Each structure stands twice: as C-alpha cells, then as structure tokens.
Amino acid sequence: MKKLLCVLAVFAAIVVTVAGTAQAKSYRVVGKCKGDVAGYGWFEADTDLEVEFDDGEIEREYSYLYFYGFLTEVDNQSARITWDDKHVIYREGRYDVAVPYSAGAGLWFKDNSRKNRWIKLCDY
User: Fold this and answer.
1) Where are the alpha helices (DSSP H) in the chain?
2) Which tens digit of pLDDT belongs to each residue from 5-62?
3) Cα torsion for 99, 104, 110, 116, to the nearest 10°?
4) Percent of the chain at pLDDT above 70?
5) What SS3 string covers the chain?
6) Closest CA to 108 of 39, 47, 57, 54
7) Whole-number CA gyration radius for the chain
8) In 3-state terms, what secondary structure has residue 84?
9) Rounded CA gap, 84 and 77, in Å?
10) Each residue of 60-110: pLDDT tens digit?
C-alpha cells in the first residue's frame, strides 16, 4: 500500500510539473511605423514587446516602447493596465496604447479624455 501511494504521489507530481510547463507560452513582436492621425498630428512608434503567459497571467514581460509626436509621453515607464489575446495595453496620461504581442494585431491608441474609440495606427 505504501509503495502504491508513493508511486501515485510521484506520478501526480510529474503530471502537475508537465502540465504547468506546457501552459507557459511566449510571444514577441517587433515593429516600427509612422503616420498622422486627424485631430492629433504625427507620430512615430518603435516597439519590441515580449510576454510570457502562464495560466492566462503575464508571468514575464520585456518592453521597449518609444513613441514620438503626439504619443511622446508613452514609454517603458507607462503603466500596464490590462491585456487581451493580442495586445498589452499601456496608459500614460489620457492615452491608452495597445501594443501587439501577436503578429498582425496592429498598434492601436485611444484618447480617454474624448471617450474615443480605438484607432488603428499601423499593422505589424
């Protein structure tokens, strides 16, 4: 009986370890773009975002965020407020910026002072 319990305990520990490892996923997207947004002016974006998820939560995050023009205040020190299945969303002042970690998701921004909808800045 003790042998059976020991074997079951070891098996359970292996299953938990393997299952936990299998759930961690890492994503990375690097992109640059520039353009103009009506009512805001010009912008340039240079981003490199890598995130690792474990059980639906961000376990590790590396972000290199540089914005110029009307988004100048958004940078590496901006607060991460949430994420979805393709973006991590940062807030600085009145702006939210959705930086993609999934290729093809695009870079988006929203002006919270105007209760604006999300505006796509570029694809990458």
Assistant:
1) 2-23
2) 444 454 455 544 445 555 689 999 999 999 999 999 999 999 999 999 999 899 999 9
3) -160
4) 81
5) CHHHHHHHHHHHHHHHHHHHHHHCEEEEEEEEEEEEECCCEEEEEEEEEEEEEECCEEEEEEEEEEEEECCCCCECCCEEEEECCCEEEEEECCEEEEEECCCCCCEEEEEHHHCCCCEEEECC
6) 47
7) 20
8) coil
9) 20
10) 999 999 999 999 999 988 999 999 999 999 999 999 999 999 999 999 999
Neighbouring C-beta atoms of residue 54, cutoff 10 Å: 14
Torsion over CA of 75, 111, 101 and 30, rounded to 10 degrees?
-50
Contact 47, 65 (CB under 8 A): yes
Token pair 């590790």 is found at 60
The whole-number pLDDT of residue 113 equals 94
